[in-house]
User: Fold this.
Amino acid sequence: MAQNLAQQAATRWRPESEAELVEMVRGARSERRAFEIVGHGTKRGLGRLIDSDVLLDLSALSGIVAYEPDELVLTARAATPLAEIAAAIAPNRHRIGFDPADWSGLYANVLDAGTIGGILSADACGPARVRYGACRDHLLGFRAVNGFGQIYKAGGRVVKNVTGFDLPKLLCGAMGTLGIFTDVTLRLVPCPAAAITLMVRNADATIGFELLRAIWSSPLEATGLAFLPQSAIPAFPELGEVGNGAVLVRLEGAPDVLEDKVRAAYALLRPHEVLGCTQGQEIFQRIGWGAAFANRSLRLWRVFVPPANAAKCAEASASKFWLADWAGGVIWQEGAEPGEIHALAARFGGHAVLMRADAPARRAADMVSPEPPARRALTERVKAAFDPLALFNPGRMYDGI
Assistant:
């Protein structure tokens, strides 16, 4: 894995401004020269390998442009480190609602070095997504450069707007293949006054996912709903002995409201014994960051299925090491071959994303489950509309796109 990440492009372009970036894209267009887009390079191991000898380094496009605490809105340049944003909004007890996940540990990079543009492009949502929604629900607007070398913008700096097509939702998770973010505007949420993590021990997958769905479908607005099978527990030694597996529920709110939530959660989790987990915040962060898989060498996938199908999907999998987040909506698992994992995900109404693999596998497999012909044709048309010469991260998600 480290060898893959050590691969460097022969040429590095580093624009110092949005205007300079535009000129570089126009030059690449005239030469029909594609490139790999990076901020701090923490996710270069994610997705298919890119055949390009040019690295477009956006790290200079950094800094907070505007922060309006009263409006819970922040605008930053795309290569602004997530840590810088967190430090700026912390004094006002604000946070980014989708709980950004730092996956750099999966690729042998320095932790806590990811940029906001990279987080959005990779759709890197953490455990709180189950409560606050995905990246696309928090990206209010952006400025970007398309494959024609033109600046365009979408959305705005207000929570509600009707300014044309909802392009923020389209570009989130597109891995930079549709445009290069220069500025992004985010909706923030207040930090909770208090939080608690509850744990149910000795739960198998069937019981565990049933309990998670009971909390998920209730009005408790849990910000973390995870299941750790027995095989994954050694990666979380602070949990101690949990038998067949552990159900983890994170609740947040004002102290008096939180007390009511805990009482209601106990009722929903009966007759199982419910314990408090003093290190719940750290454990949920590590779940979202994929930390349990960081030092393991096998191929790694995330499988997205409806939570109602999570237990059956996990039981049908041949993987011996897995865990689930988002009440079962996402299952991290290692090992499977592409054909096997895509068939498994489709069988249970979902899709799979390749998170990590060696170079041959990254060249051979699409990052995301293959699309049906009609949807594939639509994806190709969208790509052609934004980047007709396939300059931006060619083949990063799908072969030939």
Q: What stands out?
A: The domain at 2-59 is CATH 3.30.43.10 (Uridine Diphospho-n-acetylenolpyruvylglucosamine Reductase; domain 2). Residues 255-269 form the longest helix (15 residues).
